[in-house]
Amino acid sequence: MREPKHQKCALHASMRNHIMRYWPRTGNLNLNCDIKICTSLCCRNCPVLTGDEVMELIAKIREEYALELDPKKYFRKAQGEHGVYFAVKMIKGQCIFLNKEKRCRIYKCRPVLCELYPVIDVDSVDERCPAVKENKLSVEMLASLKKRYADEIDDRIKIEQTFRFV
């Protein structure tokens, strides 16, 4: 029987592994991301997904970490002007997938919106992020992340102005 991938390393990867996985698609970046400084600001934004994206995420988590997620436990329905979506549940203002050490328990499978942080919209970045405040992200890096946002985020989610939990 195959050993689950989660036993090999994944849940407590170092930030170096985080950076090496995150940045290859967007270029070479020397970012020293220290969650002690920002207490995981990236995980205080509530990613909103389509129903298909939720099912895909659940399948990836099952494959990568051998975990079964009940969608009702981890996601809330969110009504937008153009449809019904699913928001990752937040606990005390932080993502339900954070562990006690403020590390993502589904890091290798996290939603694209999480992966693109600090980009939070096609033309917006989270100014609270220390990497943004300290200009650690090059113009090229931010442009690349914004392009990925434009290309990879569902068009319906991009045009929504607000979501109402239902």
Q: Which spans of ≥5 residues are poorly predicted at pLDDT below 50? A: 1-31
Cα gyration radius (Å): 16 Å
Helix percent band: 25-40%
Mean pLDDT: 82
| Secondary-structure element series | HHHEHHEEEEHEEHHHE
Class per helix and strand makeup: alpha+beta
Biggest sheet architecture: 4 strands, antiparallel
- Spatial ordering of strands, largest sheet: 1-3-2-8
Shape: globular
Strand content: 15-25%
Given the structure, what is the number of helices? Answer: 9
Distance between the termini: 42 Å
Query: What is the number of E strands?
Result: 8
Map the helices and strands:
Blueprint: H1 5-8, H2 15-22, H3 35-38, E1 48-49, H4 51-65, H5 71-74, E2 75-80, E3 83-88, E4 90-91, E5 94-95, H6 112-115, E6 119-121, E7 124-125, H7 130-133, H8 139-152, H9 155-159, E8 164-165
Antiparallel strand pairs: 1-3, 2-3, 2-8, 4-5, 6-7
Structure write-up:
The protein has 166 residues and is an alpha+beta fold. It contains 9 helices and 8 strands. The strands form 3 sheets. Strands 1-3-2-8 form a 4-stranded antiparallel β-sheet. It has a two-stranded antiparallel sheet with strand order 4-5. The chain has a two-stranded antiparallel ribbon with strand order 6-7. Strand 4 and strand 5 form a beta hairpin. It is globular and about 40 Å long.
Q: How do you describe this structure in short?
A:
The chain is α+β, with helices and mostly antiparallel strands and 166 residues long. It contains nine helices and eight strands.
